[in-house]
Amino acid sequence: MNRIDAQPTSGASDTDRPLVFDVQGLNVFYGDFHAVRDVELPVRQNEITALIGPSGCGKSTVLRSLNRMNDLIPDARVEGQVAYHGVDLYGPEVDPVQVRRHIGMVFQKPNPFPKSIYDNVAFGPKIAGVRSGLDDVVEDSLKRAALWDEVKGKLSESAYALSGGQQQRLCIARAIATRPDVILMDEPASALDPIATLRIEELMFELKEDYTIVVVTHNMQQAARVSDRTAFFTVEVGEDGTRTGVLVEFGDTSTMFTNPSRKETEDYITGRFG
Amino acid sequence: MTTTTPDLTGDPARHRKERRVKMVMLAAGVLTIVVSIAIVLSLLSEAISFLTQIDLGQLWAKGWFPRRGRFDLRTIIVHTLLVTAVAMVVAVPLGMGAATYLSEYAPRTVRRVLKPLLEVLAGIPSVVLGFFALTWITPNVMRRIWEDTELFNMGAAGIAVGILIVPLIASVAEDAMRAVPDALREASYGLGARRRHTTLRVVLPAAISGITAGFILGASRAVGETMIVAIAAGASGGSLLTFKITEGGQTMTGAMASLAIGSDQIAGVGAAFQSLFFVGLLLFVFTLILNVASERVIRRFRERY
Amino acid sequence: MTNRSVPTTGDLVAGALKGRRLDVGGFVLVVGLLLALLISMIVLVTLIADMIQQGLPVLAERGWAFVSTPLSPDAHDAGIVQGIMGSLGLMLFVVVIAFPVGVASAIYLEEYAPDTRLTRFIVANVRNLAGVPSIVYGLLGLAIFVKLLGGITGGRTLISGGLTLAILVLPIMIITASEALRAVPMAIREAAFGVGATRWEVIRYQVLPVATPAILTGTVLTIARAFGESAPLLLSGAVLSLFFASPSGATLWDFVAHEKYTALPIIVFNWARQPQKEFVALTAAAIVVLLAILLLVNATAIVLRDRFERRT
Ligand SMILES: Nc1ncnc2c1ncn2[C@@H]1O[C@H](COP(=O)(O)OP(=O)(O)O)[C@@H](O)[C@H]1O
Ligand SMILES: [Mg+2]
Questions:
Q1: In CATH terms, is domain B56-301 a member of 1.10.150.170?
Q2: ipTM more than 0.90?
Q3: Which of A234, A246, B111, C308 is the most buried (most CB within 10 A)?
């Protein structure tokens, strides 16, 4: 922890909340390709942590290693430590399926199942063995995702009939329904129009009361608006042309956007890069 | 909120179930290897037994007359090549024409109608084409061209086999042409080329390996086609070597069919029965070589784009 | 064109019009290509028309009796009911064996298999099996099911024929099912994994429902293909004679495991070999029935798929 606070950015936050993730020395490879190198990242409870940086710098890669989604990519390899409430996520006893029930995910493009709205939300709890009270879970999740009022009369209709923004909130409701502790979001608003984007941002604000959120975003203003802490990644181009993602700076969002300690961060934030 | 250590270990029962399901699926996949092994073993064992029984000189004898112990391979191989050649002469222009039209010229609506019709043609069983060859192609095509065509003749069989493989050749060639990036066509138009020049000098050459693969596959199907030759090319007893498509003759598959339908042989043992497996093995090897060759060619074409 | 002078708009228009008017070669090419396609269509139409024309008298005269009476050496009495029953029985084997095994293999290859040598070998092997001539499968059936396992299958019975056909279509089933699975968007799988589904739950509840229409269409087409197959049945024991009787009082099991059997395409083949004139008409009539069944099945599948494709 100290090590990270001692890293670039100054003045961490006020009262440090408990750590949810403690990422140390994270390296991810796709086959021989070294995608991200030596990432150190603390994620604190009931906060929104934003991962920003130019495209291809490994934000999604880091995010996906937080709930072992990278396991699904055949030649992806994760090295280093990802501690989740002190438990090594990559420990031998750990079941990735169980991990994903604790740590939900929302993807870049809304990806509802080609099923009814109800079935979309109920799927997670159902496979987790919830048999009774499903209706309540669905209703509660949709309410938390601020979608209930728009869909309550048509739960049995296809999720594909919803607008893009509604679909993305449905995906958030679906993630909430498994009662996770963390929600990972990979550019959740990048495929949406500004109004839908705003709704997602508002929603994130509400959600952090109950959940810990890690969000990848491309959009600087978004990171500045919603997040408590920001991690800035960039691509390091090696002599042989290999491109590896590295974490440049991590700290309080307000500090980072007003007074970045690294030149690269400042350039990126002020739009002189990427 | 949870600050206690979360339980991330999975349910062992579910793990076992997952493993069981995976094993079942894997077993199904491995079954296909078992099938291949079974094919090769059953062909090999009887074929070897055949070779040990006969005088090897009989593999180069006068004609294919298995029940008289004459197993001239030239005869059935040449006849197979003849039928295949006729089939290709029919199928290549028809298939290529159809594919080029569908890929480069056909309006969407026309395509929508004609493509399914080609598939219907592909769905016609070969027995039906065999009967069509015997009762329609022989009198209306073969005898129009060569008056003295025999009733059973390799020409009619070849034409019918050609019709059989038109849809195959057309669909592989069409896929290859549609895989040519539009940028190439646009570049050609941009240079002021006409459509036909674009089609003939840009699209076709770019798709050539896919098209070639289709031809090879078509030839492989033609070599292995049985019922048409069994009905229309003459499949009783045996045959002498001939190079005339107006005459009847046994191909490899025709020879196998005629051995199979001689019910005295089918259950029995003996060289004639086992020659069935020997020819089957040859056929298997021939078509395997052709199929592997077409795979190779097609893989090269995939790498290009 | 060189840049000696800038052409005027008039020049360009004139050039374009001229070009279009004079492209006789292009016109000839299109006509030639269309002709190639039309010839194939004409052949299809001719074939069907010819069969109907030759077979119609028999069908008109005999009516339903042609379909519902057994084989007979007398062309005036001969019917195809044994062939239809036999073919339906064979299809049952195809559906019960090749469908589940084929889909399971496809699921393994598409959803589970790591990219290992074994996997690549299985895939290559399936492709090659799909290209093995059908008569070679007949040899397999003859060697394994009729002879080696004759004690279990009863030799030349529906079981042997059915197993042979099931193995014949297995690679095609695998290939179509694989394509159907591959067409399911990755995003759906990610979403399901993301809420903590196990791999099998992802497949069972999300992937398979999406792939089902395409798998079913492919299966229907594959069954149609198996329905018209005859070469492998010649070897794996279908009866090739002008008539055979089934004893009265035989149970369904007897029909499957003890009795002789035949199939509709086998009857077509056998009748086509008969020199008598009456059998020509009889053959055509049987072909009309065969084609009617197949066209119906094929058309259903094609319409199904067409609708499915338009939806996605
Ligand atoms: N499945 C994969 N296989 C191979 N390389 C990948 C894969 N996913 C991402 N990469 C590579 O890893 C690097 C980081 O990608 P990603 O994490 O998606 O970046 P970001 O989300 O920041 O745009 C990129 O160079 C990308 O090409
Ligand atoms: Mg990304």
A1: no
A2: yes
A3: A234
